[in-house]
Structure formats: C-alpha cells, structure tokens
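User: structure tokens for this one?
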Amino acid sequence: MQIADKYTPQEIEAKWYDYWIENRLFHSEPDGREPYTIVIPPPNVTGMLHMGHMLNNTLQDVLVRRARMSGKNACWVPGMDHASIATEAKVVAMLREQGIEKSSLTREKFLEYAWEWKEKYGGVILKQLRTLGASCDWDRTAFTMDEERTQSVLQVFCDLYEKGRIYRGVRMVNWDPSAKTAVSDEEVIFKESHGKLYYLRYMVEGTDKAIIVATTRPETILGDTALCVNPNDPRYDWLAADARVIVPLVGRSVPVIRDEYVDIEFGTGALKVTPAHDVNDYMLGEKYRLETIDIFNDDGTINDKVGMYVGIDRFEVRKQITKDLDAAGLLERTEDYVNNVGYSERTGVAIEPKLSMQWFLSMEELAKPATKAVMEDVIRFVPEKYKNTYRHWMENIKDWCISRQLWWGQRIPAYYLPKGGYVVALTAEEALEKARTKTGDNALQMSDLSQDEDVLDTWFSSWLWPISVFDGIRYPDNPEINYYYPTNDLVTAPDIIFFWVARMIMVGYEYRGEKPFGNVYFTGLVRDKLGRKMAKQLGNSPDPLDLIAQYGADGVRVAMLLSSSAGNDIMFDESLCEQGRNFGNKIWNAYRLVNGWSVDDKTAQSENDRLSVEWFRQTLSRALRQITEDFSSYRISEACMAAYKLFWDDFSGLYLEMVKPAYGQPIDAQTFAQTRAFFDELMRVLHPFMPFVTEEIWQDLAPRAAGESICVAPVPQPAEVDEKLLARFELAKEVISAVRNVRNQKNLAQKEALPLHVIADENYPAQYAPVMQKMANLTQIETVAEKDPAAAAFIVKTTQYFVPMAGKIDVAAEVKKLTEELAYHEGFLTSVMKKLSNERFVQSAPAQVVATERAKQTDAEAKIAAIKEQLEALK
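Assistant:
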C-alpha cells in the first residue's frame, strides 16, 4: 500500500479496527503460552462513554496490547453491569412517557419491558469503546444478568446461606425514597448541607415546665417514643425518675430515659429518640425496649400511623410542621446550621434511615484473608497509599445489606411457607422439596410457596466478575478458569475500592482460595484545568466521541496518558489532544521524509552515518530499558512520555537530521535499511499507546501476509547499553549547539560553513568529529595547541573550542561580552567556595553533595581561565 500525503486519523482508524476484528486478533483461547488477563470494570448498561471511561480503558488497552506483543496470551474480557437501580429508573421513566405506571404491571410484564429496553438501548458504551481502539475479546462479552452470571449469583447466595453467612432480619438501613429500596453504606455520599437547627418545647407531663430539644429534622417528632438526658447532667436533676414528656403537636406521652450516650456539652443536653429513623436512636430503643413507630412510606411521604400530614412529602412536612409548632408556641427558636447529610449515590436524594426487613451477608470472616492479602502485598496496590484506606475499612467492616426492593436484578432464591418460615434453594423445584421436608407436609404444592420479592444488590453480581466471566462458580475446575484465573491487572477508580475491589478479593479467597488479580492500578479523577471534577452537570466535560472525531483516537489516548499517573487526578486540557494529534502528524511526516529519500546501492556508508546509526541504536536500547522498567512499576504515563521523547527528540529531531542526505543527493542503502528498521522498532514501541497510526505505518514498511498485524508483532527488547558512548555523544551535542549559538550571536548565516579549532583533552569526543562537522556545518575541525585570539570561544566541560572570526568579529563588543561572562563565573565560584570553606558543611553534608560542589568549582575555574586567556588574546 502507499501511505497518504496527509495524516488524517479518521480515515485510518475505522479501517484498522475492522481489520483487527475480522482477523480475530483480540480473541484468546487457552494454550501453552503464559496468560495475561484483564477483566473490564463492567460499565452500567445505562452508561455512555465519559472521560473517566476514556482514561480507565486507555490504560487497560495499553497494558493488554503490551502483553500481547510480549508473547503472552492476552485476554481482555469486556462486559456490562445490569445496574439495578439506574436501569429500573430508566425503564420506569420510559413507561411513564407511554402512560404506563409500574404499579399497574405484573413483575413478569415489567421485566419484559426491561429486557426490551436493555436490548434496544443498553450496551452503547461497549460500541463506543471500539472507537477508542479497545482491544477487548468481544466474543467473551458478559452481562451480569445473563444466564451464566445469574446462575452463579444464585448458587453463591445459596452456598453462603447454607454456611450461615447470609441471614435475614429487621435492621436500620439506608433507604432511598426515590428508588424505593435499601442501599448499602458505600452507596451513601455525605455532603455538607446548609439547614436549620429547630429548638422544640417538650412539656413535662403534669407540670408547666418544658425541656428544650434541638433537631435538624422536626418532621421525625411524629415517630418519637422517648426523650433522653445524661444521668450526670445537673440541669435535669429536678426531673422525677419516672418523668414523662409530651411530644409536641402529636400529644403522645413518652418516657424520659437516662443514658450516658447523650453528650452533656452538645446543645441543650436533651435528645429526642426516634428508634425507627435514626441508627443511634435505634440502638437506644433496643436497649430500653422502646416502641418503634415507622412514620414514612417507601417514597418518603408520611404514612397513616400517626394521623397527621398523611401522604405529604417529608420535606414539605418539615416546612409545614415548623409553622404549626410555632403557632402552637412549641418552637423555641431556629438557628442556621451546617451538617453532613447522606445522599444516595444512585438517585441523588437524601437518604432516610429506616427500619426494614432485609437480607444481610456477614463480612467479618470473609474480610480476614482479603485484608491479609493486600497488607502483605500478595495483591499489590498502585499507588500504595490506598492500602491504609483499604485496611481501615476492612478492619471496621459492617455486614452487607444485599437485598434491594426492585424487580430488575437476580431475584432472591428464598421461598416463604404458608404457615411462616422459609427455605432457600437454587430452583423452585428444589425449594418445594426442602419445604416438604421442613414442614413434614408432602401435600405442599408449588402454589403454596411464594418467592421473596426482592432482588440482590447489583454488586453481589459484580463481586464474582473475575470468576464468573470464566464460569468458575458453576464449573470450578473448567479449563478456562484454571488457565485465566487469577487475572493479572485490575484498572479501576479508587471510589469503588469498597464496592467492588475489596469484595472481589473476599469472594476470590472464598471460592478459589486465592487472589482474583495480582495488581490493582488506581486511576485518579479527570478534572478540568480549573481543578473541578469533570461532569456533564457542570458543563465542563467534553464528549469523548467529539474529541475522537476531531483529534483522532490516537491523539486523545496520548492526551490521557501524558497527563495521568497512578492515583493522581488528571488535569485535562483539550490542548493535550492537539498535542497528541500533532505527535501523530510528526510520526507520519517523519515516515514520509524517509520514504522520499532516493537510495544508491553503490554508495558506501559514511562514517557520519555509521556513528549516527550506532548512537541511535544505543539510545533506543536505553529508552527500551527505561520503558520496560516503567511498565513493571506501572508508571504508564512515564512510559508513554519516554516513547514520545524517543521518537520526537532523539529519532525525528536528531537522528534523521544526522543521516539526512544533502538536498538532491541519495542515501546509501545500508543507512536507509537501518533507518527503516528503526522505524519498525519505534512503531512497535509506540503501538500500545497509539495503535492506529503505528499499524498504518508498520503495514507500509514491508510486505505483510493477510491477517498479519503489529498487534502481535514482538515488542523490541533492549540490548546492552554503552553508557560511555552515549556520554561522549552528549559532549558532541553540546559542541553542535554551541557552534549554532555562535552563529546566532555573531549574526552569521547557518548555511555558512565555518572552521572549528579545539585544544583537545580527555573530554573532547574526537570519534564524533564527522557528526559534529555535518550537524554544525563545519568545513573542518582542527586540533590546535594554543588559543585562537581572533575567535569566538566556548568551553564544553573542560575542552576549549574556537570558531575563527578573523574579519568577522567586533573586538570591543567581544571584550564587553567576555568581561560580563567573567564576572558571572567569578561570582558563581565565590558562592561555591563559600560553601566549601565551611568546615561544618564539608563534614556534615552527604559525600555526593560535597563532590558536586567540588565539580562546580573545577568547572568554574576552567571557564574563568579560558575567558581570561581570550581577553588577553584580544588585547
């Protein structure tokens, strides 16, 4: 094929992605190679591609492409999460637009609509990931509610129940009034809220005295069943032991209890007790056997248990009850108040603590091996700082509320008996057998049993992900789970370290007896250049697909990678995408430049070209070694930057200039072949970061067989590096740069060839004279014994160089410039000598620091001596 004149990423990206898919280059089957496995953090079936997905999946793709090119059997498993709360809300909203209420439907009919919605709208994000270049094994796409995953979930539920780990009971839970379901502690986000503190008058029964109680939620007085004070609080010594108070407006007489739980120093020292709607009040209620009155319907409106404000939303009641309390003379005062209020992560509404019958999973025993694995680095966290966050949560873990009051999800396999009690079974038929055995009634029929209406928390599906995607729950000894598990790397955001990461580790040890993955790479949040988290609500988050359409997927990938390091937030600026696209353009134009050279098979390789090739081979090896180290340490951003600089600075900016033939002249065949070989290696180095442009050029570099791809070409390996050779070349680069500076300072044309004289010493890189001569446009480099009086002089390390300036130099101006330079270096030497003359510094500073200062002294003294000689010569 013939590469186009202009770099147009949009024209090549779809072509090559289709090629990869058609040739099944991303597909994996167990074989004799070392496996490399990543499971995608399954995005919600309702999701659309956002900048966080872009970052996460770019990093995963870099890792999996690198592994594939390293000869490993790379398997990246994609999939989706059924997202119970979010999906059900979408379906309910869709039905409402059609004039259909969920309450008018049977469960079966609602689920028909839900599956129809999922097939029509779900999974858009997986299609979008293809535009990014994600090299997933799409044949393995899994869904947390498909048949294999659902059966795995139910089997685990039944097993954990039989082990005594799952239980059912009434507990205080976080209730989401919008979704009308319980949510776990981890799904509650606390935000600073500006509200009010209401001081209410609770009249002491049989007296005209009142106890003032402060609350932020006056509507909950409808459920008050006690008032509590600290027994050590002298302010309430006057209260009789059996004192009772009247709940304001409600008129209910409730006892005054005494408990040291109440903080004497806070507020009035009196606490209203509402056991049904506050977790601490619930504990007091249990301790003192208080009545529990649940005042809320599932949607956050007031129920009919008290007979007041029935059917009105809780926040409307708060406004109204405040007015009514004030009118009744029972509102002492109000104050502005700032406190933390819990909000549902799923729907954004304020959480309502609520007593509810739920299913729970006991976590303490599950947490022990999972905590040990991370703390002992059996599972490695990158960065390590998240280990302490993880340990703190695991050591204070609470039981997991795993039931949700929804229809979309895996239905809890518990079946209730006609006369009370229940059985847990994998199938209805098995449940019937268990029910007959438990009751001793063989006449029981399926119609006598009723299955639990709740579904399992979505995370109860996704915690099995590394096992269930290989069907390792149902078939724990199948060839795939034995080959691919444990997986290698997990790339995820730290905000789901508890939701998902910790739980996957727990279930991995429970069902496989080993870790689910070896390394967890935590990404940061994507923020705008002002530091704000990118969000559609703020209008500061670009559409990733728009970015790809404008800059190309390779350009956007480079933008994400260059600005991201593990665990640190990314300050994203769209100009980075332009930088990424420009890099693609640089690669393209460099390749076109090389392809444009004519080749002479008869011309021998020049010494300049031989030296240039050897230098770049060493430079490439050093960069490959650095990139390998970066990957092993999960410094993905640094690896990308090293590859970027290798191509932009070393190869394109320097090497190609060194070997480029003179205008209209051919290049020798040997140098041309070696240059194209370097291009091949560079494309393979860059491929994990920029898959599309590298494939396009790699395919053009040589004839390729059908189905052949850079995707599976071996990643270049570093050879031994001659550091002395590279250090000598750095000296030559400084000479070239200094000669160019002389031209600029003396207003000499860059095209004008100049001679160069040198007083050679051990720091003169003589072997690179041909390179210096070509790159600095020198007629010759002559070794001399003495300084050249009429010359522009400079020093590289300790070596003195002179560009003869006879007839080209303004002596007075040169003297002035050298005098200024002399003053600077003498001042610098004075500051260095001040340090070195300080015995305390010399004795206490690290040896390397002192050695550095002595090197500065030597360098400054050499430059001062050289400048003085030049000044003397100009007199």
